[in-house]
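thought: fold this chain, then report.
action: predict
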Amino acid sequence: MKIRFGGDYNPEQWPEKVWDDDYRLFDAAGIDTLTVGVFTWALTQPAADTYDFSTLDRIVERASAEGRAICLATGTGAHPAWLARAHPEVTRVDFEGRRHRFGQRHNSCPSSPVFRRLSTEVARRLAERYAENPAIVAWHVGNEYGGACYCELCAAGFRDWLRDRYGTVERVNEAWYTTFWSHTFSTWDEIEPPSALTEHWRGPDHTAFQGITLDYLRFMSDAMLANFRDEKAAIRSSAPSTPVTTNFMGAYRPIDYHRWAADLDLVSWDCYPPDDEHPEWMAFTHDLMRGVKGGQPFWLMEQTPSTTACRDVNPLKRPGVMRLWSWQAVAHGADAVLFFQMRAGRGASEKYHGAVIGHAGRDDTRVFREVAALGAELEKSGDALLGGRVPARVAILFDWDSWWALELSDGPSRLVRYQDVVRAYHRAVWAAGAGVDVVPVTADLSGYDVVLAPVLHMIKGDLAGRLEEVARRGGTVLSTFLSGRVDEDDNAFLADVPGPLGPLMGIRVDEWDARPAGVVNPVDFGDLRVSGSLVFEIVLPAGASAVATYQDDFYAGTPAVTRNSFGEGEGWYVATALDQAGIDRVVGQILDRHRLRGPYAGVESVQRGRATFLLNHGASPVSVIAHADSAELRTGARVRRGDSLTVEPRDVLILVQ
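observation:
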């Protein structure tokens, strides 16, 4: 066994004579795993009463004969044209109330009984036909789930979901605060999905009733999860033990992946960073995906070997970047490094999307040579990294409910973006070289010395008590502005801000100010002055001491950062959106208290199992001192503690003790 290497392969798009060249090139590149059948519903079911597996049979048989492992997809990420023609109710109704016709993908209503029945039947027949093939190592359901629907079927499904959640209409009215604007509901049938035709007046984030919209987001995430469960159950009837997954999209706002965790056998995700300049973006998202199932290794299901085709501008990965970012994924917990796509398609919207094999089928391109070199490295590494865990004593809480509630709120500021703030705190830990998990608010926190909870807008269940326990036993908990504001129904606590977090933080927030982007208030740490922006909470200590203070406006001299002794530990509160230097200072002080800074400065350092990865994302060599006796995994070179090591630009060293 080894780290799996390969990716999405769509041979149904080309004449079979091309397949011979494909497999010759797969051999040259060390490709051992192929994801097939991702968009084949129209191929395998060309009509309502007709199933034709002849092409997929040849694809699976050829891959098996060539010794490749197969991740077999159900093909249900887009429904066929005949289905939309015969059953128009299968297509989605969008936020503006328009029923779509056949086209694109993510085009199915998740509440449609017809869609659920037919997609489940496809999955059942596929599993029945191929489950005994030993080459199949995983099942891939759907593809990049997404696409909300607002049709009458979804309205009925929403009402059923509300009955299960709340039990009575009276409880719904309480949760949604419907005495406001005469919105009290008397019967379930009066409840409508929140859309541009009902509660929203200026796009999906501007709603008169945040509670209604929040619950619809929860419902839609669960509705798509029900589709996944349908197909997984159908697969399980013939394949009781082979892992079943679907490809997540990182920090994807519409779907709460934490709600899906129990139903996935393994997490996989598609890594398409917004640019080629911020490796911390990928580090954060790898950590988030690893945290979905409590630190289990994940699959990097898709990445481009060169360029994407889905944005206005699609930069090319520079030489060495694909290899470096692939090893970064492995460092953070990936047990598979897979690409989209193996061969470039000739037409449609992804014909210019990067591929291992280009349109000409050459083996002498830079991209192909780099892929082949990476394949050789992974082969040489064997099973030394497979299944390894990433130890961490720092946790960052990530909560889709807080994300949704914060960005739906009409105040204090719509300029605060949940993900940006959380990423900034993760970046500070990442830059300091400390191991960090990104975990749900329901996670067991007993193994962490530091828990960071930036913009934890919503406090649910016993979370406040569990955070207090972290501090009580000697740990440190940090939270920030706009935290502890609302309960699980998105209603404000009848208490001083930050609500249930107040005792731990030792403060109360008396007022808050919000200003446009570009307006800053200097924040003074005594030996360092940084900037605060967007939101400025006016803090009154209630036991906490000031670590840094505002310098301008009528609240000059009041705390912007506080620290409170709690039990054997501390609670830190940051009352404004600090710039990165300010966040680095706060997080650095917390890490130093627990001696958690990594020993390697200037490179990204990640521990996985017995291996330490040193990744240089910069353009210049970096010299570091080895902190343990080890061997470089791929070369076998011996390293002694105290040796000086050079990590070349866009290179990686993997030191195994």
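thought: worth noting. The chain has 16 helices and 27 strands.
final: tokens above.
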